[in-house]
Design brief:
mainly alpha
Length: about 60
């Protein structure tokens, strides 16, 4: 059985943990989220999606 977790949910959990353990402040977390939204609307978003797909594909094949 394979369990998949959306990358957005995983990144949200990381931001929540960073806030919880005070590794980053609330203002910095909001700025990071806003930066992600604005970055997604630029031309580099396709390149980032391809990079993330390649990295997650490589990580999935590490144990095989």
């Amino acid at each position: 059985m394979v369990i998949t977790i959306p990358l957005v949910l995983l990144l949200a959990a990381v931001v929540a943990l960073l806030l919880r353990f005070k590794a980053v402040g609330f203002g910095a977390a909001v700025i990071a989220v806003l930066f992600g939204f604005y970055l997604a609307s630029t031309g580099v978003s396709d390149t980032i999606k391809q990079l993330v797909t390649a990295v997650t594909g490589a990580l999935a094949n590490v144990g095989r």
